Q: What sequence folds into this?
């Protein structure tokens, strides 16, 4: 296949990130200067060098 025959279709824009679920929530966080980095709370990080990370705080796929 040549590159002239390849196509891509974008059907929507969505964000699932530690900064927020959805385009608006994510954009609000990054433009508001509110970092998503914090102490790890989803598991015990004591065996790792780092105790900070960005975690996604959602469990339901319906929020995406």
A:
């Amino acid at each position: 296949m040549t590159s002239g025959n390849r196509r891509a279709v974008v059907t929507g824009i969505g964000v699932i990130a530690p900064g927020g679920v959805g385009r608006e929530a994510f954009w609000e966080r990054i433009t508001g200067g509110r970092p998503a980095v914090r102490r790890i709370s989803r598991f015990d990080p004591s065996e790792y060098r780092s105790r900070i990370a960005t975690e996604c705080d959602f469990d339901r796929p319906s929020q995406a």
Notes: The longest strand covers residues 37-39.
